[in-house]
């Protein structure tokens, strides 16, 4: 599934809500990797993402130590997926897997072959929708009090 839209519109918040309400507890192994672009651009960022994925999916109490990306890839292959599933993960994801990707650029979803029917654009709220959302969370109703 691909969720796309402008910066700050709430794509990650929506993805996290979907993950928490629909996926968490429905699968044997789950992981929510936030800020992948930012983290992968840091020193050892990909390694830390691999460590998190392995730890989350295996629900391991021991910290998984990954020293470099190739080692992390091999650990994921050996410990999480059977070889056929791993090959599927490298191309399309393993059968039965649910992956939610957020991006600013819909073309990224083209690149990784996300079907059009699984793409969702998050639009900006208009003034009335913004006010209703704010007042619902701030005051518990959709319309501001006139007092």
TrEMBL record:
It holds the Pfam family NB-ARC. InterPro entries: Disease_R_plants (IPR044974), NB-ARC (IPR002182), P-loop_NTPase (IPR027417). Gene3D superfamilies: P-loop containing nucleotide triphosphate hydrolases (3.40.50.300). This is NB-ARC domain-containing protein. GO terms for molecular function: ADP binding. Residues 1-141 form the NB-ARC domain. GO terms for biological process: defense response.
